[in-house]
Amino acid sequence: MRGQSVELTGVSMRFGDFTAVAETDVTIRAGEFFSILGPSGCGKTTLLRIVSGFLTPSGGRVAIGGETVNHLSANRRPTAMIFQNLALFPLMKVWENVAFGLEARGVPKAVRRKRADELLELVALTGHADKRPTELSGGQRQRVAIARALAVEPAVLCLDEPLSALDLKLRQHMRTELKAIQRATGVTFIYITHDQGEALAMSDRIAVMHAGRIEQVGPADEVYDRPETPFVATFVGEQNVLSGRITRVADGMAAVATPLGEFLGRNTLGLNEGDAAMLMVRPERMVLDGEARNSFGATLERRDLEGPFVQLVLSAGDQLVSVQMPNVGRAPMAGAMRIGFAPEDAIVMPPDAEAIAT
Ligand code: ATP
């Protein structure tokens, strides 16, 4: 199997006068694990259905492996799709499910069986070939669906929230498995999810989508550390947001006057003195330290244990601030304290109430 690139040029989708996907340009590289991350209704499924040929775009060009495929129906494209509900056939054995697409192509039974066994080995289901899907766990059924999709040797595998029905532990386990299967096969994976943890953990690159538009494309650490829009900054991970106005800009940094004090942050978007702004700091970048360059007084309101982390909620002025620290027994239990953050751990964004609310 070999992955192919997917190139969307000016692709858009309108339903009546509603624009589900605005004009979109994006290139997914051959053999890449590419995630499309965004909230419910932002257009992720629509985009995936356009790639796989289940939906004809209102405009634009779809190319796979450099060839325009707009005119090809789903079953003539080098793509396969795994849906949220998996759609396995309950009365067929596991191996028959896997080989289903091969039977439709007239492949002889012995070859089908051999191919199914190879794929079941790839997804770590050797020994389950003669069971029915109902005799398998949720995670095992998930892997049958993956093996079935890979049986037709797609160049591009489209996965629509395939882990959403699984419990948390299994979901985390399947992330590792999916990534390993993608690496082993070299097939291009396009994975859609509204779960930022999944996207961050698995992807070579992530496209963050909001209201029909891709707002940023990049590797996980880039999207997390250098968000280009307020929506990306707040949708991927948590942020403390301090609103205010910029008082000074210099050397890529900006000072923002907020109700809690004047603080410095990275001015990555090049905002100007006098602009309204939001200063954003991630909970894990907050420190209990009056010595930090940016610091303010706060009172501990709540302390939640989250296994490896302790989440502190503090009140400061009339807002709540969240601080996440490793659970190594040093988290305070109560009281007033100073908390702070380094200027390089804060980013300055234009105000965008809608982005924060979503
Ligand atoms: P979810 O995570 O909930 O599946 P999504 O990001 O995949 O959401 P889409 O299913 O792509 O979102 O839908 C995007 C928007 O387009 C939604 O507002 C949806 O209601 C609308 N939409 C999707 N399909 C149609 C259709 N056939 N006719 C009209 N509107 C549609």
Automatic annotation (TrEMBL):
<dbReference type="InterPro" id="IPR008995">
    <property type="entry name" value="Mo/tungstate-bd_C_term_dom"/>
</dbReference>
<feature type="domain" description="ABC transporter">
    <location>
        <begin position="6"/>
        <end position="236"/>
    </location>
</feature>
<dbReference type="InterPro" id="IPR050093">
    <property type="entry name" value="ABC_SmlMolc_Importer"/>
</dbReference>
<keyword id="KW-0547">Nucleotide-binding</keyword>
<comment type="similarity">
    <text>Belongs to the ABC transporter superfamily.</text>
</comment>
<dbReference type="Pfam" id="PF08402">
    <property type="entry name" value="TOBE_2"/>
</dbReference>
<keyword id="KW-0813">Transport</keyword>
<dbReference type="GO" id="GO:0022857">
    <property type="term" value="F:transmembrane transporter activity"/>
</dbReference>
<dbReference type="InterPro" id="IPR013611">
    <property type="entry name" value="Transp-assoc_OB_typ2"/>
</dbReference>
<dbReference type="Pfam" id="PF00005">
    <property type="entry name" value="ABC_tran"/>
</dbReference>
<dbReference type="GO" id="GO:0005524">
    <property type="term" value="F:ATP binding"/>
</dbReference>
<protein>
    <submittedName>
        <fullName>ABC transporter ATP-binding protein</fullName>
    </submittedName>
</protein>
<keyword id="KW-0067">ATP-binding</keyword>
<dbReference type="GO" id="GO:0015697">
    <property type="term" value="P:quaternary ammonium group transport"/>
</dbReference>
<dbReference type="InterPro" id="IPR017871">
    <property type="entry name" value="ABC_transporter-like_CS"/>
</dbReference>
<dbReference type="InterPro" id="IPR027417">
    <property type="entry name" value="P-loop_NTPase"/>
</dbReference>
<dbReference type="InterPro" id="IPR003439">
    <property type="entry name" value="ABC_transporter-like_ATP-bd"/>
</dbReference>
<dbReference type="InterPro" id="IPR003593">
    <property type="entry name" value="AAA+_ATPase"/>
</dbReference>
<dbReference type="GO" id="GO:0016887">
    <property type="term" value="F:ATP hydrolysis activity"/>
</dbReference>
<dbReference type="GO" id="GO:0043190">
    <property type="term" value="C:ATP-binding cassette (ABC) transporter complex"/>
</dbReference>
